[in-house]
Each structure stands twice: as C-alpha cells, then as structure tokens.
Design a protein that fits this description.
By secondary structure, the chain is an alpha/beta fold. Strand 6, helix 3 and strand 7 form a beta-alpha-beta unit. Helix 1 crosses helix 15. It is globular and about 65 Å long.
C-alpha cells in the first residue's frame, strides 16, 4: 500500500503524538509499505526528503501560542487535493485535529480515499488549563464532527473507546500503543549520571518525564516529592522534559535537577537511572511515558486511567490511584518511597507487564486496519 500520514508534529519535536506517529510510519515502512508524510514546514527545513527517508509534502505553518518551537499547519485543502490527485495514496492517516488535519480529511473525502483519524489529545480539556474552560463543550463537539467524517477513529485504550462511543463518536477502533523494550530497559541504569544528580549510594531519584505544561498537573508532582523529601532528605527530584512551565518550576524549586529534553538512548538512560516515577497528569488520552518508565524498571505512581489503567493490571507494578484524588497520589508516592524492597519489586513487575507491547505487533495491526478500510472503500 501507499499510505499518506498527516501530522502537525513530528520528530525532532518530543511529545507523545510525534513519537507515536513516527513509530507507526517506521513500522509501515518496515512492512514494505510506501509512506508519504504531510506536515507543517519547520524553520530550518530544506527541500530534501526527511532524514528518515520519507517523502515529505510540507505545508505553510504558524507558531503555536504559548508553546515556543511548535508549529501548526495552515489550511491546505486545495494543495492536498492536487497533490493526492497526482500521487494517490491507498489510505490516509490523519493524526491531529488542527487546520491541516481538517484540510486532509476534506481532501480525502473529495477524492474518495479512505481516511482514518487518531484521537491523541483531549483538546477540550487542554484549553481549560489555559483560561478557556467555557469553550470546552464547543471544542469537544468540533472534535466529534471532525472524527466522524473519517472512516475510523483510532484510540489507544478500551476505556477511551467506550468514553467516545457513549458520546456519539462513530467508527471508534482500538489500536494499542507500543513501547520499545530494547531501548527502554533497566540495564541502562548509569551510576555516573546518578552522581551528577547528586545521588550517593542507595539515595533515591524521583523522576517526572514529559512536557512541562499547565495541563500536566505538575504542582502535584512537586507536592508528592516534598512529602517524600521530609522523610528522605537525600532524595532528588529529576525533571526530564521541557516546556512553558519550566521557568516557573525552576524558580520555585532551585534544588530540582532539570534534565531538559532527552532523546533515544539518552532518554532511556535517564529513565533507567531513576527509582520512582511520578505521573500526576489527568489530561492524557494515553501517556506514553508511563510505558517507557515501566519498561525501564521503575515503580510508577499515576492516576487510574489511560496507559496506567490499560497496562498496570498487576497492582504490584506501582500505584494506580483514583483520578483527581491528590491526597491518594501523595500517599501512594510516600508508601513506595518508604519501602525500597517493594519499590524494586514493583519495578520488576512493571517491566514484565509491558514486555509484550511490541512495536512490530502494533505496526501489523495498523497496516491491517488500513488495508481493511481500503477494501471497504472499494466494495
């Protein structure tokens, strides 16, 4: 098959959507399918194909407010229609709901090319953290209209599928997420790196990973760590990632170690060198970093939804606490921090729980789904 993938975000940007879509594209190509990439133009882009070897069709872009370095694609329906008339794909995957995504779905419908969409971000919840909570119902309704124009909407968990179906989203299908357990593994633990963090001997490194943004509930992670620190004075909090909240967090918490953006083996080394992973976000559709932390052998404290609900079936993996119960989150973090034997056992169980989540298996499922949409469209 020839598959067109349309996305507003793509590596080297680091976020769950970019990394998930990149993995799907690589997986399709590994199975022998041709992949054409449609994305916004980024500063510094040349006229050549991407370093990954994908044929790229770049559209005009604009900066995303309050997220320096990120851009979104401007409307491009006419250009996409002409492009796909000349280079017709067998199926289209639209990963994001921005102006570019809307243009792609409209062009696909006009050309009668089967298109599926990915539900990666709860934008209705996202905007409430930026002072626009009153717009959430309108945004959610707009998202429903967008996704219902596609032949299928892909979601990462059964929980989210049920949520959307109950709210009149049509053609919802589950496509599981994967984690690279050869990249993220406990063996990457690095004593020298822990020393740079100020960890000595059996000292504890408490980690948070992901974008540093208002919707990530970061103040709860800080609160949980401060409670741990009262009992374990030598504990260190290591924040892996970057974003608009970093400056505030750094100013208010000068003793924290801010590792910044990390990629590939460097990111895996940071995760494996921790002891406890705190993920207090309540705004995820999934939360890829949860799987990465589990694969790295870390005990995880997270709210009971998304990746944690889907894959922390074994209660010994860490702690899944009731959603939005901040006190329970802090208590769970303290319990694991206080018990190094349980914490180490939780890390081993967490690793075991995700070893079957192979990227190859997910890629095959994705390819099969696209092929079925192609057959249904041709019938």
């Amino acid at each position: 098959m020839r598959v067109a993938i349309v996305t507003e975000t793509w590596p080297p940007e680091i976020n769950g959507v970019a990394l998930t879509v990149h993995s799907l594209a690589l997986g399709l190509r590994g199975l022998g399918h041709a992949v054409d990439l449609v994305r916004p133009h980024q500063p510094g882009d040349g006229e050549m194909d991407s370093p990954d070897g994908f044929a790229e069709f770049l559209v005009r872009s604009a900066s995303l407010p309050r997220y320096p370095g990120l851009r979104f694609g401007l409307p491009a329906q006419a250009r996409l229609t002409r492009h796909w008339q000349a280079n017709r794909p067998d199926a289209i995957y639209v990963a994001t709901e921005g102006p570019l995504g809307h243009s792609a779905v409209a062009a696909a419908r006009r050309l009668d090319i089967p298109a599926c969409t990915g539900f990666h971000t709860r934008f209705d919840d996202f905007i409430s953290h930026y002072g626009f909570a009153w717009l959430s119902p309108l945004v959610f309704a707009g998202m429903r209209r967008f996704h219902n124009r596609a032949a299928a909407t892909l979601v990462p968990t059964r929980e989210l599928a049920g949520f959307l179906r109950a709210r009149k989203f049509a053609h919802v299908r589950v496509l599981s997420r994967a984690v690279d357990t050869t990249l993220f593994r406990p063996q990457r633990r690095d004593a020298a790196l822990r020393g740079q963090w100020g960890i000595r001997g059996d000292g504890m490194a408490v980690l948070h990973g992901g974008p540093l943004a208002p919707e990530k509930n970061l103040d709860l992670a800080v609160r949980a760590f401060r409670a741990i620190q009262l009992r374990h004075a030598d504990a260190r909090f290591v924040v892996v990632g970057d974003g608009p909240e970093r400056a505030r967090l750094a100013q208010e918490n000068p003793d924290f170690c801010f590792a910044g953006m990390r990629r590939g083996e460097d990111l895996a080394r940071h995760f494996a060198s921790g002891d406890l992973f705190l993920f207090p976000s309540t705004s995820e559709t999934f939360g890829n970093v949860t799987l990465e932390a589990m694969a790295s052998g870390l005990a995880v404290v997270a709210f009971d939804y998304g990746a944690a609900r889907e894959h922390m079936d074994d209660p010994g993996c860490g702690a899944c606490v009731p959603v939005a119960d901040a006190d329970a989150f802090v208590d769970a973090a303290l319990a694991l921090a206080d018990d190094p034997v349980r914490r180490a056992d939780s890390g081993r169980r967490a690793r075991s729980a995700v070893t079957s989540l192979s990227p190859d298996t997910v890629s095959c499922s994705f390819a099969s789904l696209l092929a079925s949409l192609r057959m249904e469209s041709a019938a």
